[in-house]
Design brief:
Number of helices: 14
Keywords: Glycosyltransferase, Transferase
Strand order of the largest sheet: 5-3-1-8-9-10-11
Strand content: 15-25%
Helix content: 25-40%
Structural class: alpha/beta
Organism: Bythopirellula goksoeyrii
Pfam family, one: Glyco_trans_1_4
Number of domains: 2
EC number: 2.4.1.250
Largest sheet: 7 strands, parallel
Distance between the termini: 12 Å
GO molecular function: D-inositol-3-phosphate glycosyltransferase activity
CATH class of the largest domain: Alpha Beta
Length: 381
C-alpha cells in the first residue's frame, strides 16, 4: 500500500526546530510507524517562507520523500499570530489542483490529511472533486457544522484522537472512529541523563495568554506563594503578542515566583522544570488541539496535572487519580485545587506515578498503528 500523509504549515523560524507544533508531531511520527510496518509513505505539505526551515521531527527525504504544494492560506508568523493571515480563493484553487495531481502522479492508494476541522472539510472536498484515491482525515478539533456539514460526510473516514471529537464528528454524519495515538514528546529522554532536583515547583507552561488561562494562574500564584515560601511557583512561557499583563509584576512581588521565557537559558530546560514539579497547572479556556498535548506530555512525564472541564481534557486527566479537573474560568477553584495537591505532597507524587502508567496504557503507539492500518484496509476496500 502507498499512503500519502498531508499536513500544512510545518515550516518554523530558524532556532525553533525543536519547538514543534502538535499538529505536526503526529503525522511525522505516523510516517515513521507506517514505514516500519511495511507501508510505502509519501509526505505532502505546503510551501513556506524562505526564512523558515523544516522542524527536526521531519524524516529525511531518503527515508520518506517530501512533496510540496501551494498553500491556499496566508499564515501568521509563528509566535506572532499575524492578523493578516487568511485564505485566498485563487491560491486555494491551485492548492486543490496540485493535491489532486499529486495523488494521481504518485499513484497513492490512500491520502490521509492531518489537522483541524478544515482538513476534514478538505478531505470531503477532494473526494467530491474525484480524487484518484480515497481521502480520509485525522481531526484534531470538533467540526463546525452548518452549511459545511455535507463535506464532513464526504470524508471517507475521520480518525479522531479523542472520544469527544469522535462524538462531535459523528453528530454531523461523519464516519468517525476513535484512533488514539501515543504521545510523541518524552521529557524524561530530553533530560539527557541530567539528574533533576527535588520536586518543589508548581508549574504553568505554554503561552501566557487569556485563552491558556494564564490570568487565572497569576491570581492563584499570588494567593499561594506567600503561604508556601518553600515552593517555587513558575511560569515557562513561549512568546505571544497577546500575553496577559502582570507576569513580571508578580515575579517582582514574590521572591518564589519566577518566569522562564523560551528560548531558555542554557542551565534551564522545560524537561527539567517539569521533572522538578510537584504538579503542573494548565487551566485552558480554549484547546488548540485535542488531545491537548501539553496536558498529555505533563502526565507522561509523571507529574500530576490540573486541567479544566473543557472538551477532551477529562479523557486525559482522571480526576483525583492522575490529577484534578476544575471548572473553567474559576480562579477560586483553581487555587483550591493547587492547594490540595500541595498539602498532600506524597499523594500528589503517587498521582504522578499513576499518570505515567495510565498514559502509557491508554495512549499507545502499538495500538495506534494497528488501528490505523485496519482503518486503511476498511476504507480502501
Amino acid at each position: 500500500m502507498k499512503v500519502g500523509l498531508m499536513v500544512t504549515g510545518i515550516g518554523v523560524p530558524k532556532g525553533r526546530e525543536q519547538n514543534v507544533s502538535g499538529h505536526v508531531q503526529l503525522p511525522m511520527h505516523t510516517a515513521t510507524l507506517l514505514r516500519e510496518a511495511g507501508v510505502e509513505v509519501r509526505l505532502i505539505t505546503t510551501c513556506f517562507r524562505e526564512d523558515y526551515v523544516l522542524p527536526k521531527v521531519v524524516p529525511g527525504p531518503a527515508v520518506v520523500p517530501l512533496h510540496f504544494v501551494t498553500d491556499g492560506r496566508r499564515r501568521g508568523e509563528v509566535g506572532k499570530q499575524n492578523i493578516k493571515a487568511g485564505y485566498y480563493p485563487l491560491a486555494m484553487v491551485k492548492h486543490l489542483r496540485e493535491i489532486l495531481r499529486l495523488t494521481r502522479d504518485l499513484k497513492l492508494d490512500m491520502l490521509h490529511l492531518f489537522g483541524a476541522d478544515r482538513m476534514t472539510l478538505l478531505a470531503g472536498l477532494l473526494n467530491m472533486l474525484g480524487s484518484s484515491c480515497p481521502v480520509i482525515s485525522t481531526a484534531y478539533k470538533p467540526p463546525h457544522p452548518g452549511i459545511w456539514a455535507p463535506l464532513y460526510r464526504k470524508s471517507k473516514a475521520i480518525a479522531c484522537s479523542t472520544q469527544f471529537v469522535a462524538n462531535k464528528c459523528a453528530s454531523v454524519g461523519g464516519k468517525a472512529q476513535l484512533v488514539r495515538p501515543g504521545i510523541t514528546r518524552d521529557f524524561r529522554t530530553e533530560l539527557n541523563g541530567c539528574e533533576p532536583g527535588e520536586r518543589k515547583r508548581v508549574l504553568f507552561w505554554r503561552e501566557g495568554t487569556y485563552e491558556q488561562g494564564c490570568d487565572l494562574v497569576l491570581t492563584a500564584f499570588d494567593a499561594l506563594a506567600p503561604q508556601y515560601p518553600e515552593l517555587s511557583f513558575d511560569l515557562a512561557l513561549r512568546e505571544n503578542r497577546f500575553e496577559v499583563p502582570g507576569v513580571q509584576a508578580l515575579c517582582e512581588k514574590h521572591e518564589n515566583v519566577s518566569v522562564f521565557r523560551f528560548p531558555y537559558p542554557d542551565e534551564i530546560s522545560l524537561a527539567r522544570l517539569i521533572a522538578e514539579s510537584l504538579c503542573v497547572v494548565l487551566p485552558f479556556r480554549k484547546l488548540t488541539i485535542q488531545p491537548q498535548l501539553a496536558i498529555a506530555e505533563s502526565l507522561k512525564a509523571g507529574v500530576a496535572t490540573i486541567c479544566t472541564e473543557l472538551g477532551s481534557c477529562s479523557e486525559l486527566v482522571l480526576h483525583e487519580k492522575t490529577g484534578l479537573v476544575v471548572p473553567a474560568e474559576d480562579d477560586t477553584a483553581l487555587t483550591s485545587a493547587i492547594k490540595e495537591l500541595i498539602e498532600d505532597a506524597e499523594g500528589t507524587l503517587r498521582m504522578g506515578q499513576e499518570a505515567e502508567r495510565d498514559i502509557e496504557a491508554r495512549w499507545n503507539w502499538n495500538k495506534y498503528t494497528e488501528e490505523l492500518l485496519k482503518l486503511y484496509d476498511k476504507t480502501s476496500s
